[in-house]
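@channel anyone free to eyeball this complex?
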Amino acid sequence: MTVRLRLFASIKEETGRDQLTLELPDDARASDVKAAVAAMFPGTARLLPTARIAIDQAFVSADHPVPPGAEVALIPPVSGG
Amino acid sequence: MFQIVQEPIRLDPLYDHLADPRAGAVLVFTGTVRNHHEGEDVSGLTYEAYAEMAEKEMARIAADMQQRWPLHRIAMVHRVGALAIGEIAVAVGVSASHRAEAFEACRYGIDALKAQVPIWKKEAYVAGAQDRWLENPESCRS
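replying in thread with the prediction:
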């Protein structure tokens, strides 16, 4: 299945991309998204462990299933305020 | 009122939003850009947000605040883009019948925003140090 991945801040800068289209297995979990990004952009390895994952604009746990067509996002530690 | 905005944050509309005839306390916290961070002189900040999710996350925090305290109105606004020293980056406001719950709730609101709303700042320094993305100590991590 195909999902749209949005990237921000340090991860956006490291990859030079604010958006990726990922091809994932149909039974993919949120953590598989990190593995896919690490494979495409090895420079993100230091940034991925602390990043949270959001699906359709809400935080999810690592084992959360990724629905087809979802908008997935990698959320590095935040620094608003 | 839960907004990510590009333009300077204006407080008058925020106070208008918080107005409520039952309120005896209207409290607004503003976070401003300071000129120093960990011993370095800061020249300015650039904020970025996942705006659609940030606004939803603010609304989730506000719903949580409503559960915990008897509040009348809540507002959260965060600015993005390049900000100069002294400018308002964030405003969190509440109205309540009495000040005790207003202070507690407002503190909770800004703390939760800093921990979980998807907004990031990149700091630029006066003395040549490389610009860098910051991480709030209270930020939730995977």
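from a first look: The helical segments of chain A are 9-15, 30-40.
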